[in-house]
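Notes from the 1:1 (GR / supervisor)

We went over the backlog. Supervisor wanted to see one worked example end to end before approving the batch request, so GR pasted a single chain during the call. The sequence is below; no edits were made to it. Supervisor asked that the structure be written out right there so they could see what the output format looks like.
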Amino acid sequence: QVQFVESGGGLVQPGGSLRLSCTASGVTLDYYAIGWFRQAPGKEREGLSCISNSDSPTYVADSVKGRFTISRDNAKNTVYLQMNNLKPEDTAVYYCAAELGGSCPLPPFGSWGQGTQVTVYS
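Structure output shown during the call:
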């Protein structure tokens, strides 16, 4: 069974950092483009970042550029989203999504994780 599972969310104060992980089971992540999205209550889903199956190109949304970084560790079958200098407006459920052979920015993604909650509070 193919699954993509997010982890690493939690509570953090403004200015803090979190690293989200998207780990695949049942497939080799090397061949997938992976995207990170978030959705806050009452707001539309927002595409944040993407890494292509060949690691290039990558994409980072202007809203998080300079604070969020996407990376891949093929040995661990995991893609990361490093989030620094977090702000209260970053509070949302964060999702990873996968598309076989996809290329960024933000191709149509066919597989989605269940999400992980990030809460930035003061």
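Supervisor's comment: The chain has a mean pLDDT of 94.
Batch request approved.
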